[in-house]
Structure formats: structure tokens, C-alpha cells
Amino acid sequence: METLLATYAIAALAVGAYAARLVIGTGRLSRRLRQLHTQVDRKPEQLPAKRIA
Amino acid sequence: MNGPPVDRCSHVTIAAGAVVACLVLTSLLMIFFIAPTESTMGDVQRIVYLHVSVAWCGLAAMVAMGCCGAMYLLRRRIEWDFWSQAASEVGWLCATLTLITGSAWAHEAWGTWWTWEPRLTSSLVLWIMYAGILLVRSSIEDPHRRGRVGAVLAIIGVADVPLVLMATRWFRGVHPIAPEMDPQMRLVLLVSVVSFTALFAYLIVLRRRQLELSELAAESESSASCASGMPRLSHSQLT
Questions:
Q1: Which residue of A has its CA nearest to B216?
Q2: Which residues of B touch A39 (CB under 8 A)?
Q3: Is-contact B106 B123, C-beta < 8 A?
Q4: Do B47 and A51 touch (CB under 8 A)?
Q5: Of B32, B22, B24, nearest in space to A5 by CA
Q6: B47 and A3 in contact by Cβ < 8 A?
Q7: What's this model's pTM, rounded to 2 decimal places?
Q8: Cβ–Cβ below 8 Å for A34 and B4
Q9: Å from B192 to nearest chain A CA?
Q10: Domain coordinates of chain B in residue numbers?
Q11: For residues B47 and A36, which has the higher predicted lDDT (pLDDT)?
């Protein structure tokens, strides 16, 4: 019974870790893209003065 | 200008994730509570349901990778390489789990963790091929060169799939060929194969989406840096 449970636990850990990496990575990329789109959509006069200069 | 194409698929992705989670949960419940206990091996035989499912997914991912690689070579569209890369990662995960679950089962059934038997050896070759493809891909910076090399290696890797499938028939070994099963066990095995295939296909789609987003972010990053004079992030910083 221990072998059975250990095998399923290893599989669950491996798949869970990979899925979590995908979800977190995709979330981070989505936020970054949203931020970048907001930045590109801004008109030059709305950008901070330091950056225009 | 349209909004970012980021959240367009998020509802569909979440709904598909919920369906896949339900399928996997159902199959786990069936494996542990509905499948009858095998008379000679006892509870350890339940490893077979996971082992067969991940082994099938590992082989299917290699075939998918080969097909996507061939499509990339024909069309030269980077989207095909995204599919190929996603399949290679998930396929490697499945091949690793096949070796782990197989070893655990073999320890109980044959009294050894490993034996140089044709099916086991060809499965190890498949794992080495996946690992090799991932290593080679990670060492190439240029996306199109990476795609070309990855595609050629994936097509070579597909040659091992019939060897793994037919190893028990072509060569003498100790690995079971197609053992007689109780109808209830067969049903549980079928449900497990379907639900784990859905799970790994879902992971491939998620990974492919992530690769597409990282490409989009790299492009947007360069547009944003042109507009505001901000320093550019590298592609690796985005992934």
C-alpha cells in the first residue's frame, strides 16, 4: 500500500508543480502584457516628463 | 486599438481546467474505490492504471511533436514550434512518470526496480530522446534555428515509438503484453487513459499559450521601449 500511495503522490507532485509553474508564469506574462499595452496606448503628453525629455 | 489579447481565452481555459480536474478526480476515485483488488498483487496493481495512462501520453506526445516539427519544416511558422516545444516538455514529464511508476510496479511484481528488458530499455531510450531534445533546444538562442533543429530531432524521435509499442511482441521479455482483465478493471483503465490524456493535452495547450504570450510580450516590449525610451527586457526575462 505504501508503494502505491508513494507512486501516486510523486505523480501528483510532479504534475502539480508543472501546472503551477504554467499558471503562475502565464499570469505574470498577462500582467506584463496588459501593462505594456497601457504604456503603448498612452499619448506622448501623458508620459512622464522625464521620459519625454 | 483593441485590448490586449491576454484575457480572451481565460474563461474558456478556466472552464476546460475545471472539466479536466473533474475527469481526473473521477478516474482517481474509480482507481481507488471502484476497481477490484487484484488477487495476486493486491493493491499495488492499481499502479497499472496510472502507468498505462502516462506511458500512452508519453508516446502520443512524441508523435505530436514529430507532426508539429514536420509542419514547422513545411510552413516555417513559429506557432508550430510552440506546439512542438509544449509537447516535448509534457512528453518528458510523462516519460519520467512512466519509468517511475513502472519501476515501482516492477519492484513488487518482479522483485527488482529495473531490468534490461526490451520494453523497459526502449522506454528509457524514449526518455533519453526527450531529455536530449529539451537540452539541445535550450542551448539554441535563435527561435527559427531552434525550431529547425527541434523538428528534425522530433522526427528522429518518432522512430522509437513503434519500437516501444512492439517491443513485447518483437523481442522476448518479461513485460506483460496484453493481460486478461476483469471488465470492471478494463473500464477503470479506459477512464484513466481518457482523463489523463485530457489532463496532459490541457497542459500542452496551457504551455503553448504561455509561449505565445511570451512572444507577444517580447514584441510589445520593443514597441513600448521605442515609445517611452524605457530599457528593454530580454526574452528570457519575460519567460
A1: A33
A2: 224, 227-228, 230
A3: no
A4: no
A5: B32
A6: yes
A7: 0.86
A8: yes
A9: 13
A10: 15-201
A11: B47
CA–CA gap between residue B208 and residue B210 (Å, rounded): 5
Residue tagged 493481460 (cell numbers): B179
- Are residues B68 and B87 in contact, defined by beta-carbon separation less than 8 angstroms? yes
Could you say which architecture CATH assigns to the domain B15-201? Up-down Bundle (1.20)
Q: Label residue A2 by pLDDT band (50, 70, 90).
A: confident
Q: B123: which 3 cell numbers?
A: 522506454
Enumerate the residues of chain B whose CB falls inside 8 A of the CB of residue A49.
none
ipTM of the complex: 0.85
SS3 B89: helix
Residue B5 DSSP SS3: coil
Task: Name residue B126's amino acid.
Answer: L
CA distances from B61 to A37, B6, B43, B154, B187 (A): 35, 26, 29, 10, 23
CB pairs under 8 A between A and B: 100
The nearest CA of chain A is from the CA of B223 a distance in Å of: 7
Nearest to B88 by CA among B145, B140, B9, B147: B147
Q: What confidence tens digit (pLDDT) does each residue in B109-131 have?
A: 999 999 999 999 999 999 999 99
Q: Is B43 exposed, middle or buried (0-12, 13-18, 19+ CB in 10 A)?
A: middle
Distance to chain A for B44, nearest Cα, Å: 5
Q: Which of A18, A29, A42 sits opposite B217 (nearest CB)?
A: A29
User: Cβ contacts (< 8 Å) between B10 and chain A: which residues?
Assistant: 30
From the list B109, B129, B138, the residue with the least C-alpha distance to B48 is: B109
